[in-house]
Fold:
Amino acid sequence: MHAKKTALKLFVFAAGALFFIASVLLIGFLKDPSGTILGTVWCNGVSPCDNAGEPAVTVSGFIRISQINFTVYPEKREPAVNNWDTIAGVVIENCTTLNQFTYNNIATDTAGYGTINVPIANPVPDGDYRFFIRGYSHLNEEFNCYTLDTVSPDIDLYLEGKELLAGETSNTYDNYINSLDMSVLIGDLFTGSYLSDLNQDSEVNGLDFGNQIYNLFVSGD
Structure:
């Protein structure tokens, strides 16, 4: 009786082992080089994957800048304190790619502070940017590279020791002060022209003419 039980156990063990070996061989035969078995991806060689065949997800993008704040001073204002407002044209240039973004008619306040609200339709990626700024009656001035990101730091361009040079008053902006600019200013003498009142003392006079003469034949950046 004991011999029969032993023989039965050996038979069951042998049958199980043969079934396992046969299953492994069958799976290996059916599995193609892509790792699928009969069109199904098997994660552990025994059970199919829950999300078989789904493509990998790749996420990319950049941080969008919504606002750029800067401070810039036009030269030779009278009075010389809290009298730095102008209407500026601003170009920022990526210091690596050289891609440019242009913003016109940016009004600065009496402290020289201006804000650019970056349109969603033309986003500015975060990075380092060089500033080019010209005032309403001024030559274009180039400034250094500054890091712009979502923190919207206040870029104080005056710390570079540069001011916007005054005297560009001609009807056609050529970024060069010459006789065309002088003729416009002379025509505005003793008026309150915002364009020709270079020192912003409320009247176009000899002081403004002197400022323009000082920058005669100077070109902007």
